[in-house]
Amino acid sequence: MRIEIFPSASGDCVLVTSADGKRLLADAGLPDAYEAYIADPLSRLHAAGEVIDVAYVSHIDRDHIGGILRLLDHEVAWRAYDHSRSAGGRLRKPKVPRPPKIGEIWHNAFLEDIERTEKVDLGTALTASAGVLAGLNAAALGDRDSRQIASAVQMLALSVGDAIEVNWRIGADQLDLPLNPAFGGELMTARPKTPIALGSLSITVLGPTSEQLRKLRTDWIAWLKKSKDYVEKLRKQHQRDADAIGSGASALDFAGLSRDIALAVEKDVTPPNLASLVLMVEEGGKRLLLTGDAGDESLLGYLKDAKLLDASGQIIVDVLKVPHHGAHNSFSKDFGKAVRARHLIFCGDGEHNNPEPDVVKGYINAIKAAPLAGGEQTVFWFNWSLVRATDFLNLWVEVEGLFDSAARNAGIVRRSLRRNEGSMTIDL
Predict the structure, then answer these.
(1) Domain count of the chain?
(2) Is 333 within the bounds of a domain?
(3) Do residues 315 and 309 make contact, with C-beta atoms less than 8 angstroms apart?
(4) Predicted local distance difference test score (pLDDT) of residue 374
(5) pLDDT category, 126, cuts 50, 70, 90?
(6) d(CA 199, CA 21)
(7) What global pTM score does this model have?
(8) Less Cβ crowding at N or C end of the chain, within 10 Å?
(9) 382 to each of 12, 108, 355, how far by Cα in Å?
């Protein structure tokens, strides 16, 4: 099994290749990150006649699904060009790299069903949201925290839109890609006794549970139903603040409003994280745990239900994709003690304070307290680094400073993406 780790801004992007050449793409970061770092390497697969057998979307947050949507957009552009050329048309050749063909999509998508059954006008809500977001003037927000908060607000509406567009892109009238075929096109939920074969890979869906998906659906219905009035209120508030900014008034009130919005958003978007599609990927006795943004309590529950924890309540995997970019709300001492790994992958460029230094330290402390048997090294992989960073420098100084002589003496190694490096690879 080969695991290629791409830079993906604040999101995730990992490409898994089996010994017999089957490929699973796990998320694809933010759209801009996909274009900057991921599109060209994937286009080389196309040039070599290779395909991505499965594109797996862990959940609908934009830093996971946005790059997948951009990949599908590129494929649509190329297919339209091919059709035009074959019909004697004059459509211009796309200026974007051509992605490899996708075999199937794994994605728990039900937003269109919500729109139909609950009579929620997603289009109106999204259009209104876009108007609000266009007015979040970064120049008017004088401090970095405010800009990050504005970005977090933007992520909410765009994530919903991306999820709907992915549904459209893969439909029969566009790319006609199979959705969740191992589950008959239905939502993928925990099925620990029936793994999916992908060549020599055996992939077990550990989560989410049906109950978590029901909660996600209920919460999204509630959010979408209230979103018209909510967004209109924000639009009016923004207009007042924009008028104030234009007259030279202080932007402090506007930044304060953004913080209030962010608090509401944070509460509302928790269920998508909890409903992350969690996979155990196995080949030849090696194991990779893909976690999306699932919470530590959910993950421990999935592992327990699948009877993957030993008598001491622990599991050792070869690779752990660290949940939620190393955020505090997906880590606990219990999780660090229970889930041990020879390789830990942290995806995040410092945005939203991820990976959080205290979380990285928590994983380090768990290893120091109970090193792997036989003196094995534990490698921490970061898909960003201080030498690449132009922002969040203090965070990266703190994170990289954790790998001191005491860490090295405990067999802990740091591997960070170098300045001119396009990806990193783990060969199991």
Answers:
(1) 1
(2) yes
(3) yes
(4) 82
(5) very low
(6) 8
(7) 0.83
(8) C
(9) 11, 28, 9
